[in-house]
Each structure stands twice: as structure tokens, then as C-alpha cells.
Amino acid sequence: MSSNPDCTVCGEEILVQDLLLCNGVCKSNYHSLCAGFTATQFKKFPNQKKTKWICTTCTTPEAVITKTSDGHVDFAVMLNNIHSQNTELKAFMTTKFDELTSSIKQNSSVIHDLMSTIAELQNSNLALQSKQSQLENENINTNKQIMNSNKKLSN
Ligand SMILES: [Zn+2]
Ligand SMILES: [Zn+2]
């Protein structure tokens, strides 16, 4: 028999590197995949988040209300649950905010690069235009010279 825990969702054995333990009421074991995370997402999980993670069952409002054995609402446990949910939510929001901030920064640097590329293109376009009119002038002069020498020849 293996010493690894079984997954609450699929019932299969969970290897340590794939284990996600709910820090909510149920304290269940999940495969990171069965908990709804891709392998890439899970790899980026900070250790703090792995220990603070709460499953979707435990984040439903009903799950927060914990009753004592005699049927009363256990406020201490309930407050504790709400607190861990808030901590989880705060960590989640912080991560999202950081992601958003850095993506805005990335976008603005992309836009900045684009703007300078456009400016460079405009400059080289101007250079090409003046080169073109220079060539046109040279062409006109050459044509005149040809006409002149033709005149001289015919004289
Ligand atoms: Zn599973
Ligand atoms: Zn749970």
C-alpha cells in the first residue's frame, strides 16, 4: 500500500509534487489538476499559497457556517474560516493586481517601442522621398543634356 493520500475528486493516489491540501473546513487532498489548476499554473504557485489554498466546496457560504456537535453554530470556527477565506482572497487579488500592473507596464513598453519604430519609419520615408526628388531632378538634367547634345549633333 502506498503512503500517498488519495484525491477527493478522482480517488487516485496523489504524488507529493502534485498535492494540494485544502486549508478550509474539509482538509481534503486534491490533485492540482483535479482542483482545477493546469500544471503550468501549479508550478508557479508560491509555497505560501499551497498551504493557504481552500477548495471550492469550502468557499461556498454554507461551508463557512460550522455547527458544533449539539447543533449550534460554532462562531470561533466560522470566524476562523472567514478569516482564511479573506486571506486567500486577498492573496488572490494581490496576485491578480500584480499581474495586471505588469501587463500594463509590458503593454506600454510595447507601445513605446512601436511609436519609436513608427518614427524611424517616418524618418526613412522622408529620406527616401528627398532621395527620389533628387533622382527626378538628376533625370530631368540628364534628359536636357541629351536633348542638347542631340541638337548639337543635328546642327
Ligand atoms: Zn484527482
Ligand atoms: Zn475544502
Automatic annotation (TrEMBL):
InterPro entries xref list: Zinc_finger_PHD-type_CS, Znf_FYVE_PHD, Znf_PHD, Znf_PHD-finger, Znf_RING/FYVE/PHD
Keyword Coiled coil set for record: yes
Pfam families attached to this UniProt entry: PHD (PF00628)
GO MF: zinc ion binding
Domain of life: Eukaryota
Domain PHD-type: 4-61
Protein's recorded name: PHD-type domain-containing protein
Species in which this protein is naturally found: Oedothorax gibbosus
